[in-house]
Design a protein that fits this description.
- A hairpin with a 5-residue loop joins strand 2 (32-36) and strand 3.
- The protein has 20 helices and twelve strands.
- The chain has 585 residues and is α+β, with helices and mostly antiparallel strands.
- 46% of the residues lie in helices and 11% in strands.
Length: 585
């Protein structure tokens, strides 16, 4: 299904006239062009790079699809490095020299095999004459040659006077490659399209997956005998025949989506995520906006998120939202690529699930907090030291899968959020939102009839974990009032982790401290009526059976949310008091 959707996307782009490689071609960065006249005489080297120093970036060109290089000699058609074009070795040994000469012969032989020596195109004839002549002295004298000899970059040919069109891009060359008879075995039924086609033996490498090999990795690969058919002794791609044209289509589409300048990709933890629609749709532009982090220094604009939530709630989604939409998550796995998640549905279904994701995360917040949380903010909040490198493996992909499918968030996300709250003795808005979202989504999935944590303080919610979280916040508030503002350390910094893990022992100590702090307030002439009433109100929620020795993971999460809700309510209470004073004045 994944390969089929990618194949269809390739043909969609082609039908829309997008700049995508035709059959037999690929986009390749080429730093230097070899300029020839029609007689095959060398006329210079052209540098295509832009930028300064190490940031120089070569221009990308459509070129005949490259060979999958191994330890043997395999020449690309009309482009390659100096070893293949000029016979210049990378080393100084006799073996290196022999290999370079073999590579040079293979390069010319491939051009002649594909086009013949009398092909009706000035560019191809010029290349063959230039290579046959083997007079490269003028090339070696060019000022750019020193850098080329050191770096061995890819190079290709262009005719003098052609400023844009490479020889490999000339109309007759393209037509020849598109109509070439496909070889490599007799035709079989393609497993993707159901049509007859010669099977692809080796599939093109997929590049651009974060963390994978820079040379690319494969989704489809049979590189060990244990993966192959023992019945018919099939080799490599013959074990699961995918037609050559289909293989080209799906790999080209995926490499296009994963390109550095693609607007249809985003990074979720260790998972490179790409997305596309069955036909052109604005959601291809919006999808990453809803879930990804805005560029550094740029304030997020949440107008589109608000519009999405309103449209889903009122049921006013446009008719074109029945369009199919696909999201694919890829992660590195040695020389292969692992599929982290796959969504195959409609735009309308996906919008509803993204809206539900935002609603589940909604929680009372401070004025300075962001209105909505990106996936990056969620993952970084549970990473030690707040570093992206410390995000647990697979968690980004599993979280994204939950968003796309509407299923419960991974338990590891809940566990990680609670662990970070204990480790740092701190519950911030993001972690509280994560815990709340995990709990409410799990309850909805299990169709629980009992109440679950809400967006803001709920004084009627009597879950033990939630009540003890509120009680901990009240004890902390009493301490702050007794010892004055600007405390370097509160009971939260010492007892938070213990209070949620071993509440019975910890709350006995906290209760003793609260009695001492209230007495100190009274002795200083401060009124303790409000604090004592609030303390009694929360204590009344503790059942007759008393405080438990331990709490489950879910109740530890409710403890953190209860603490956060009560603290936020204190801020709201203080703000209202200040506003009342201003009105009275």
């Amino acid at each position: 299904m994944i390969l089929q959707a990618l194949t269809q996307y390739y043909y969609r782009l082609k039908d829309e006239g997008a700049k995508i490689a035709p059959f037999g071609f690929e986009k390749k960065e080429i730093p230097f062009l070899i300029v020839l006249d029609k007689d095959g005489n060398f006329k210079g080297l052209r540098d295509t790079r832009a930028g300064d120093g190490k940031k120089k970036r070569a221009r990308s060109f459509l070129l005949p699809k490259g060979e999958k290089k191994t330890s043997g000699i395999k020449a690309n058609l009309l482009w390659d490095n100096p070893q293949y074009i000029f016979g210049v070795s990378k080393g100084n040994s006799d073996k290196d020299e022999r290999r370079a000469q073999q590579a040079k012969k293979a390069f010319l032989a491939k051009i002649i095999k594909v086009f013949g020596e009398d092909f009706d195109d000035d560019g191809i004839r010029a290349v063959i004459r230039f290579l046959n002549r083997e007079d490269f002295d003028q090339v070696y004298k060019n000022p750019l040659w020193k850098e080329i000899a050191e770096t061995h970059p890819n190079m290709t040919f262009i005719l003098e006077g052609d400023h844009q069109e490479l020889i490999a891009q000339r109309p007759k060359v393209v037509a020849r490659l598109e109509t070439m008879e496909i070889s490599n075995g007799k035709e079989r039924i393609c497993l993707v399209t159901g049509k007859k086609d010669a099977p692809a033996i080796l599939h093109t490498a997929i590049k651009g997956v974060w963390g994978a090999q820079s040379s690319g990795a494969n989704i489809v690969s049979f590189n060990k005998e244990s993966f192959c058919s023992f019945t018919y002794w099939k080799k490599q791609g013959l074990n699961a025949p995918v037609g050559q044209r289909t293989e080209f289509a799906y790999t080209t589409a995926l490499n296009t989506l994963l390109a550095k300048d693609s607007r249809q990709r985003m990074q979720v933890g260790d998972t490179s995520t790409v997305f596309w629609a069955d036909k052109s749709h604005p959601f291809e532009e919006d999808f990453s906006f809803f879930l990804s982090e805005p560029p550094k220094g740029q304030e997020p604009d949440y107008s589109r998120v608000r519009a999405l939530l309103k449209a889903v709630q009122t049921g006013t989604l446009p008719p074109e939202d029945t369009t199919g939409f696909h999201v694919l998550g890829l992660a590195p796995n040695a020389s292969r690529i692992a599929i982290r998640f796959w969504y195959d549905g409609t735009v309308a279904e996906l919008k509803a699930r993204i809206a539900q994701h935002f609603q589940d995360l909604e929680i009372v917040r401070s004025p300075g907090d962001r209105e909505y949380l990106s996936l990056f903010q969620i993952l970084i909040a549970i990473a030690p030291e707040g570093k992206s490198d410390n995000i647990p493996p697979n968690l980004g992909g599993e979280t994204m899968r939950s968003v796309l499918s509407g299923l419960p968030y991974p338990r590891t996300l809940l566990s990680a959020a609670i662990s970070r709250c204990k480790a740092e003795q701190k519950v911030n808005r993001t972690r509280a939102a994560i815990i709340k979202a995990c709990l409410v989504r799990q309850a909805r999935f299990q169709k629980k009839s009992s109440k679950e944590v809400s967006m803001a303080l709920d004084k009627t919610y009597d879950n033990m974990g939630y009540v003890l979280g509120r009680l901990f916040a009240v004890f902390e508030r009493i301490q702050e009032k007794a010892l004055g503002g600007g405390l370097n350390k509160t009971i939260r910094d010492t007892y938070f982790g213990a209070a949620s893990s071993s509440p019975l022992v910890t709350f006995r100590r906290l209760n003793e401290l609260a009695i001492h702090h209230l007495a100190k307030l009274r002795n200083s002439g401060e009124s303790t009526t409000w604090l004592e009433m609030l303390l009694q109100e929360v204590m009344d929620k503790v059942p007759a059976s008393g405080i438990p020795n331990t709490m489950s993971l879910d109740d530890q999460g409710r403890f953190a949310v209860g603490y956060y809700h009560q603290r936020q309510d204190f801020f709201r209470f203080n703000k209202n008091k200040e506003e009342d004073k201003e009105v009275a004045q």
